[in-house]
Amino acid sequence: MTAQDYLALTPESLPGRLGNLPALALRLGPAAGWTVREVGDGNLNLVFIVEGADGACVVKQALPYVRLVGDSWPLPLKRSFFEYNALVRHEARDPGSVPEIYYFDEGQALLVMEYLSPHIILRQALIEGRKVQGLGARLGQFCARTLFRGSDLSLPAAQKKADVALFAGNVELCDITENLVFSDPYFDAGMNHHTPGLEGIVARLRSDLSLKVAAQHLKLAFTSRAETMLHGDLHTGSVMVTETEARVIDPEFATYGPIGFDVGMLIANFLMAHLSQQGHEKSPGDRAAFKEWLLTVTEEVWKVFTAEFARLWRSERTGILYQASLYEDQGHDLASEQALADVLGRIWRDSLGFCGIEMHRRILGLAHNADFESIADESRRTPCEARALAMGRQLMLGAGAIHGMEAVTAMARRMDQEDHL
Ligand code: SR1
Ligand code: MG
For 398-412, how does the pLDDT look when each residue is reduced to its tens digit (9 = 90+)? Predict the structure, then answer.
């Protein structure tokens, strides 16, 4: 296929175009027997499930524009190259955490990968009130392993610098994050939209000068602190689950940035899942136990992230930062522990800031999330969203004074009972 000019696949054209690829034919059986469904519901790409006599796979192809908006917003196909490279690194740094890759065609911007079944998108599971065993621990591990092992704490310096240079090419997807996450929510940007009824709190947030400064401090961290390879879009729509397993997908926004970015974005999405539950209740209080479970997951993500990060710090610190030659080899183990505590403290404060900003942009910006959007009755949706907006502000402005995830989950419980409209 590489000799062809790029052409978007369709369910009809896919068997003819990919049928001769050994990577597919050997797994699926003859193309004549394939059935193809286009199932993409994300903001950017085509996603096909292809099933044959002997097996199934997923084909993901980038479109040359933003699917959510249309061809008025062109977007380069090279994001597929960054997604492929990020998936390869995720698999190496946390084996089994991502779908297996069967084939990549850079020219056609397409990835063929493992069909995860009976997995569903985590966000959908959370909207339906379905629990996943071990979820927080698995995602905490994923964050610690991928973020630690992609950083100067672990990688040889030349490899890390080459990787920073490689992912620096993901300009247009970074531009989306830089605008949609860090700036647009805080002024009346063209593509913004929000639920009617939020006007009061939106006006208050947009005239909050300290908040605007905090948002730009976070943007500065995102653009300038190339600490590690980020997933770049680690929300609950980027995780697929069964009742007992979680896999991370869609790292096309991968770039080098601050460790707290992925952690904060993930935590934000659990907090939003929590704060949206009132809107999904069929009778008052029927989601109470599930809401508590979501907060347990939030706590577990951070607890396991820090435990695994500390384990890696003590056993795999082979990079140029905080070398053992300066600490343990001098008998200064305590100094190494102090440095670890300082580093985790900084990641914590960063995470809370990024968490708050993600809560804002999903309600005020272009790309909303289904946790709130699927609450059809706007009179039930607005109070939930207002609480998330208020909590986002607290996290962004109060990051330095919030000590421990239990304080965050206590805040979520309190906010969930308050009126912020
Ligand atoms: C135009 S893309 C909007 C959002 O969708 C992706 O999933 C990212 O979250 C991005 O910010
Ligand atoms: Mg995505």
Answer: 999 999 999 999 999
Closest residue by Cα to atom 11, ligand 1, is: 177
Residue in the structure block whose two tokens are 């207002």: 386
Report pLDDT digits (tens) over 40-69: 988 899 999 999 999 999 999 999 999 999
Q: Where are the alpha helices (DSSP H) in 225-332?
A: 260-280, 288-315
The Cα–Cα gap between 371 and 291 comes to 13
Report the alpha-carbon distance of residue 285 to residue 331 in Å, rounded: 55
Angstrom CA distances, 332 to 326, 327, 338, 342, 418, stand at 8, 5, 10, 16, 49
User: From atom 6 of ligand 1, which residue's Cα is the shortest distance away?
Assistant: 43
pLDDT band at 2 (very low <50, low <70, confident <90, very high): very low
Q: What is the DSSP string of 370-420?
A: HHHHT---HHHHHHHHHHHHHHHHHHHHHGGG--SHHHHHHHHHHHTTS--
Helix (H, G, I), strand (E, B), or coil: what is residue 270?
helix
Is 23 buried (19+), middle (13-18) or exposed (0-12) by CB count in 10 A? Answer: middle
Q: What's the chain's average pLDDT?
A: 97
Q: Nearest bound ligand to CA 238?
A: 2
CA separation for the pair 74, 237 (Å, rounded): 23
Q: Residue 121 CA: which ligand is closest?
A: 2
Alpha-carbon gap, residue 119 to 240, rounded angstroms = 6
Q: Is the overall model pTM greater than 0.70, yes or no?
A: yes
Residue type at 202?
V
CA of 252 to the centre of ligand 2 (A): 7
Give the span between the Cα atoms of 385 and 416, in whole angstroms: 10
Closest Cα partner for 135 from 254, 266, 29? Answer: 266
Q: How far is the CA of 363 from the centre of ligand 1 (A)?
A: 13
Q: Is 398 exposed, middle or buried (0-12, 13-18, 19+ CB in 10 A)?
A: middle
Residue 105 has pLDDT above 60, yes or no: yes
To the nearest 10°, the Cα dihedral for 291, 357, 181, 171?
-110
Cα 344 from Cα 338, distance rounded (Å): 10
Q: Is 43 left (phi over 0), alpha (psi -120 to 50) or beta?
A: alpha
Give tens-digit pLDDT for 274-298. 999 999 999 999 999 999 999 999 9
The ligand 1 atom nearest the CA atom of 73: 1
The owner of tokens 């680690």 is 234
